[in-house]
Automatic annotation (TrEMBL):
Protein's organism: Streptomyces canus
Highest taxon above the source species: Bacteria
Transmembrane regions: none
Oxidoreductase listed as a keyword: yes
Protein's recorded name: Alkylhydroperoxidase
Entry keyword set: Oxidoreductase, Peroxidase
Amino acid sequence: MSAAMGSLHAAAVSTAHDAKVEPELLELIRIRASQINGCAFCLDMHTKDARAAGETEQRIYALNAWRETPFFTGRERAALALTEAVTLVHDGQVPDAVYAEAAEVFDETQIAALIWAATVINAYNRIAIATRMVPGGYQPTPKN
């Protein structure tokens, strides 16, 4: 199972890289989906990864209420709204307004990469929750 999940993660990262989606934005996507899904293991991992990538504590703490803060760019807001819609897709399809907002700041390849990133973290969340993965032990790999 871990090899398959590693392949999914690698594909999502590669797709995002090829589409020129910033790694920092991917961490915001991963954190936000993990907040919605209540995945403590993934929250621990991705908040640490975000901090290691230079994300501020203030923005990480405010991410759960991103709509109410001035801390996120229009591009980030569009990605977060899309992430929420994909994560909560059981409520219905991605609303046209959310997709249109994303299309104003991302091209089709980037939107596909964002949806893929949200889908992969949602899969990870479900596996981590179902297998009761314990948060706290993860440490980011130092960047050279």
